Amino acid sequence: MLTVSHLSVNYGTTRVISNLNLALAESEILMLVGPTGCGKSTILQALAGLLPISEGEVKLGAWHATPTRIVPPEKRNVGMVFQDFALFPHLTVEQNVAFRLTSKAPADHWITLLGLESLRRAKPDTLSGGQKQRVALARTLAHRPAFILLDEPLSNLDAALKDSLRWEIRDALKTAGVPAIWVTHDQEEALSIGDRVGVLNNGQLEQLDSPETCFCEPASRFVAEFLGEASFLPGQLEHGRVATALGVAPGTPVDGATGEVDLLVRPDDVSLMRATNDANGSVNWVRYEGGSRLYAVELDDGTPVKVRVSHENRIEPGERVRLAVITTHPLAVFARHQRPA
Asked: Does the model's pTM come out above 0.85?
């Protein structure tokens, strides 16, 4: 099991990662997400031994690294998969995958499993982006690493290919039984692929939990807003229920929130319909999404709310509408945020 304890990383006098703690279970896929510059790739480089750590320790089996006990990358048995593939351009697919292996058997196994059999003799410059990423993954798995670090492996691929390849990578990792830390900017990718999700903000881990818990029970407003469209309805919390301008909903307090609170609602937690006499808001804008439409509505009290409904429900900007909370599951409740006058 990979264990990271109180890990901090500095760039000069600037602290980039602060007091990181996590344990990676056997065959677990941990997704790391966060805004640009929050420290995701720095964590991978520190775990791989490519960057020195300033405080804390990293342990795996027979080795453990600290600021004074340096374990070089080649002694850590770590596999890395990069967004730019990092293939040797002069070598064939087979030669890339089998590079430095004493036996070709592991290379043959992963070439077959990842659907690369017909490309054994091909050079990287003849491959598509998806094929290159499969080769990079096959090479990593063929070397039987103790754990794998993936740094935005799908960021250079088109949207349709990302959707299918993410599952191929997940299946390959699970088949190999190798634990992995996967960095991504894509919240949907993180929530669908990961066994757990870690949300980073300014070098600190704000929440580390199952995807569903992070999404439905965010530990902070930052996590709530980063993992999807989030609206906050002012309301009054009493006995586990929150009374708002859009109706009453069950609520779960975050950090002991009570009394006057803000209720977190996702676009699917609210209904929308065209209205006249009983309207409680106006449409600011609408985005067509194919199977759905996303509406931004300003309530009559000034609260902004986003609502997602079927594409068949077509309402124009400026029209008066009526919104209502329709969820039956408890929603996260935060202490009232002071809004500017």
From this structure: yes
